[in-house]
Structures are given as structure tokens and as C-alpha cells.
Amino acid sequence: MKTFKLLILLAIFTSCSKNIYKISKKEYNKEARKLGKSLIKITPDTIDNRISDVIKSQNFNLRKPNLIVIHHTAQDSCQQTYKTFALERTQVSSHYVICDDGTITQMLNDLVRGWHAGGGSWGTNTDINSVSIGIELDNDGKEPFSYAQINSLVALLKKLTTKYKIPTNNVVGHSDIAPGRKTDPSALFPWKALSQSGFGIWYDEDKLKDVKLPLDFNYNFALKYIGYNTSNIKNAIYSFKLRFNSDEVSHELTEKDKKILFLLMDEI
Ligand SMILES: [Zn+2]
């Protein structure tokens, strides 16, 4: 009897899950159609008392992404993440989810604005969702990233950077663009290995011991030059260390950190 009840509960749960994705798919298609229609309309406007006219040009296509943001999901499984991104009430999404076993699932067309970055900036870009593709890695934030997952990530980055001609340096972490607010992907994320595969910046480690810092070395400028928002310098330092000196994450810059920063400026 107990098994029977369990089976019924399981059946209800499975059909509910399916329903979530059915609704999400329907809403996705509805929204995409609405977007298509909205492109047809260009409304004449009044700008500073001047009427701006409309004469439509036939020469255009959709804008392309130019930045890739890597996240970890901080959830227990890919199934949980799919559900989170499919439900309307969560108001979050990502273009891709990569599971522990390397499975890649696309949830948004690359050309639409996903809701993965939230507030943040990188260099002069202040609306990261508008320019980026979000990739979520199934990871709870405490475990190492699996080989299969990183392998799939590299393959996906190769595809996306080639397809949209995104500079290979334009691969960043959520923590990079939102210092003080986000810490994903965690300190366990293999940024160095990723750069050896051709994505994201890293510094020339062989040169580290020979670096002589200029007396006027401005680390605030260096952080900004790389892309960090330094309006809260302690938070910027923390994000920087999370990525480039993850064994010693803190809000303080050491001599070694400054040398890493100095070398990184050569990589931009
Ligand atoms: Zn994130």
C-alpha cells in the first residue's frame, strides 16, 4: 500500500514538472512572437521639441552578444536549476546550463536578453544582461567542478566565441561583474586552466618573481583597467582575488596581488 501511495505521489510530481516546462515553453514562444512584432514598429518621437521622422532601412539584423558570464547555480541539481529558470515567479534565467556530467542544456536563444547578471558592470558596460550570454554550471559552491563539466564549457565557449566573434578575453565570472554582491563561480573554479584552453585572461606566472612594481603603481587604476567596478575598492579586491589568487581570498591586496595585477595589464 505504501509503495502504491509513493507511486501516485511520484506520478503527480512528474506531471507537475512536465507542466512547468509546458507552460514555460508556451510563454517563451509568446514572448518571442511579441518581440518580433515589436520590432516592426518604430514610433515617431519628439526629441527636444524636434519631431523625429521614420523612414525604415532594410539593412539590419539582430545585435550580437559580446561577453560571456560564468556562474555556479548554488543549487543541488540540474533538474532544480531547470525548474528555477522555467518558473515565472523566480524572474531569473540563463542561456545555458551545464550539468556535472557535461550535459549542456540551452534555455534561451543566444540573441535574447537573459536575466542572469542582475546589477553590475564590466569596464564601461553597465547593463551586462544586454551584452552577454549567461552560462550556469551546476555546482553548489562547495564542490570542485568536474572535468566533464569544464570540458563541455570549453567546447561551448569555443562555439559561441567563434559564432559571434566574441573576444576570447571577454569571458568573466559573475563575481567579476558584481563585486560585493556575487561570489560565483566559487574559488574552486579553474580560471587558470580555462585560460590555457584559450578563454579568459590570466597572467604570465613565470614573470611573477621578477616583477619590479613602479613606485607610482596605481592598483585602483589597474583593477579598473581590467574591468572591475572600483567604487567599493574592498569589494573589487575581493572579486579580483577570488579569480586570480583564490588561495588567499580577502579584501586586502598583498605585494603578490599587486604584481599579479601589474602582469595582468599586459594581457588586456
Ligand atoms: Zn551568478
CATH class of the largest domain: Alpha Beta
What's the number of helices? 9
Biggest sheet, open or closed, and with what strands and sense? 5 strands, mixed
Q: What ions, cofactors and ligands are bound?
A: zinc ion
Please name the CATH topology of the largest domain: Lysozyme-like
Query: Using only CA atoms, what is the Rg?
Result: 22 Å
Strand content: 5-15%
The pLDDT mean sits at 94
Say how many strands there are.
7
The stretches of 5 or more residues where confidence is low (pLDDT under 50) are none
Shape: globular
* CATH architecture verdict of the largest domain: 3-Layer(aba) Sandwich
Task: Identify the strand order in the major beta sheet.
Answer: 5-4-6-3-7
Task: Provide the domain count.
Answer: 2
Order of helices and strands: HEEEHEEHEHEHHHHH
Task: State the secondary-structure class.
Answer: alpha/beta
Terminal CA distance reads: 66 Å
The CATH homologous superfamily of the largest domain: Peptidoglycan recognition protein-like
The percent of residues in helical segments reads 40-55%
